[in-house]
Amino acid sequence: MNNVCIDDTMQRQLNIAWVITLLNMFVATKVIPIHVYQPDPNDELYLAWDGQHTLVLLWLICTQVFGEDPTTFDIPVNVYASHQKSEMRGCFIDLNSEEGKKMLDLFDKIEQMIYGVRVDGSTNPNWVVTEQKQQIVENHGLFLTSKKFGDDHMPGAISRMQEINKMQPESIEWLCDYLVAVGAQHRAVEEKEMVMMSYFFERCRLAKIKLTQKQVYDVANLAKNHWGADFSPSSRFWARVSLAYSNWHAVHVVYGNPRCNKEPIHGFPFMAEQIKKDLKGFSKLLSNTSSEFIPDAADLY
Fold first, then answer.
1. Which domain holds residue 35?
2. In a shared domain, residues 289 and 156
């Protein structure tokens, strides 16, 4: 056991709760061999590229349950002949979707892509783009994280990976400029804020609106002045959107009760019309939108 080490640039951050879960339901016959490779054939050291939770589980059983010496404790491993970390990393991503394993979530996959470029020198196009996104985020004093790490409340934390995964670097640059302008370096980025503003900047990109930093700051100031740049469900932004939607529904829809959806399908048309009213250069924002809702000018700020 003592010859196997964990490569923490390849493995996920250890989830001790998952190790405890495995310990509580431990069955020896279900232990899957740890995947390792030997970076130096002349060395006795093996690096685990998959199976760190199993390794820690077996370490606890060895040292804490049985009080054994790890230098004399044998564990099951599969030794892979390749010495290329990039190849092992690709296998790690592919294999961690099997039943009975701790599956990779979106944050884990993004993290692996970033390490793949920075540590392994990978030229995988998707990985390179993901690493570019990470550069943009960190250059703005923000950071990507997951709720499972317990730091998603910290200043600068972005815990919504869906938007990071879908957006292009250009629109992420605008998004981060906006987030800094509304003070996200001093607080966590709120979920609805991430949903709404990522959707907005992606719509700008799709409408071929090339935003300058000044235009992004103008949007940030508009959001701060009108609704405090707050998109939480109870914010005055959604209260105003709900009012505008009810008024629109009464004129344009002849059946049912108005039900405002606190998502981009209703929030974006309101925000787009407000921005078009107050700022120049955004006339193409409502092209190709899936919503019929266009608020009346009287219901805007």
1. 4-104
2. yes
The CATH number assigned to the domain holding 86 equals 3.90.1530
Give Rg (Cα) of the chain. 25
61-118 tens-digit pLDDT: 999 999 999 999 999 999 988 767 777 777 777 776 655 456 789 999 999 999 999 9
**SS3 call for 143:** strand
Q: Which residues of 227-253 are buried (b: 16+ CB within 10 A; e: fewer)?
A: bebbbeeebebbebbbebbeebbeeee
- DSSP per-residue codes, 189-253: PPHHHHHHHHHHHHHHHHTT----HHHHHHHHHHHHHHHTT--STTSHHHHHHHHHHHHHHHHH-
**Where in the chain does DSSP place strands (E)?**
4-6, 34-37, 46-50, 77-80, 143-144, 157-158
Q: How many domains does the chain have?
A: 2
**Residues 153, 98 share a domain:** no
CA dihedral of 38, 44, 45, 51, whole degrees rounded to 10? 70
Two tokens at 161?
A: 């990976």
Structure tokens at 195: 């949903």
Query: 3-state class of 41 per DSSP?
Result: coil
Flag the least confident range among 86-95, 249-258, 288-297: 86-95
Residue pLDDT, tens place only, 178-226: 999 999 999 999 999 999 999 999 999 998 999 999 999 999 999 999 9
> Is pTM beyond 0.90 here?
no
